[in-house]
Amino acid sequence: MRPYESPRRISSEELIDHVLSALARKEARYGPNERSKLDVLVYLNLKNVVIEEQLEKVPVKPPQLEGWRSVSVLIGHHALVLAAREDAPFFLRDAVGRPAKVWPSPFGLFEP
Description:
Order of helices and strands: EHHEEEEHE
Low-confidence stretches: none
Strand content: 15-25%
Distance between the termini: 30 Å
Shape: globular
Structural class: alpha/beta
Number of strands: 6
Largest sheet: 4 strands, mixed
CATH architecture: 3-Layer(aba) Sandwich
Mean pLDDT: 79
Number of helices: 3
CATH topology: Hypothetical protein pa4535
Radius of gyration: 15 Å
Strand order of the largest sheet: 2-4-5-6
Number of domains: 1
């Protein structure tokens, strides 16, 4: 891969697959009772990947995430709450399916 290549857009299905894979590794450590009280944040560090534009418009609430109180993901400069139950904090419930650009300009810190 060359450093000047355009980033590849990740689909909602591929994003969910990565999140489910990360959560599967944690499910063995936490029983259903403990998982129901946890807000999970998954950080995906995928080289040269950004979320697909449709994820910025369509809420993503896969039923496989229901065992956790809430599930959020950070990828690139976006944050997205995928699912949040009624007992999750309000700011998470309110943000489900509404991606936020946590870093609008990757080079913004270095501008004069």
